[in-house]
Design brief:
Blueprint: H1 36-45, H2 48-67, H3 85-99, H4 107-110, H5 114-128
Helix pairs in contact: 2-3, 2-5
């Protein structure tokens, strides 16, 4: 088994998820969209590089669900795509539910694209799960 485990009902490389820089995607809401079990399984077996890809995909999936039918790519600026303070709160809450990582709301402004926020979340996840007691 590898890090290409289903995350948010998408298997990387199946044509429905994000692969590579700048690829566009749209998702439909599903009952399992906030099921973090698959995400945690993928993160547990992922390398640092793969963990960043998995987190970026989770950010894009959640953002696309919130902003539907907006197309979201890796370098889409959250605010330019219509993210408001209320939807930013929803995004951070959803991502915290999925990842079990505390995400300050200001992270949306400091890391304003799925690629940047995915990188931040991958590092925060590694710090929280390294056993050193660090928090995001």
């Amino acid at each position: 088994m590898n890090a290409h485990t289903k995350v948010n009902n998408h298997t990387p490389g199946d044509g429905t998820g994000a692969q590579g820089e700048g690829s566009a995607m749209q998702t439909e809401k599903s009952e399992t969209a906030l099921d973090g079990a698959a995400l945690h399984q993928a993160l547990a077996i992922a390398t640092a590089e793969e963990r960043e890809d998995v987190m970026r995909e989770a950010v894009r999936t959640q953002l696309a669900d919130i902003l539907a039918p907006t197309v979201v790519d890796d370098d889409s600026n959250f605010l330019e795509n219509g993210l408001t303070s209320l939807t930013a709160l929803e995004l951070t809450r959803n991502l915290m539910t999925l990842t079990d990582v505390e995400i300050p709301l200001v992270a949306i402004l400091e890391y304003p694209t799925p690629a940047q926020l995915g990188h931040y979340l991958a590092e925060a996840y590694a710090a929280v799960n390294s056993g050193d007691g660090a928090t995001a």
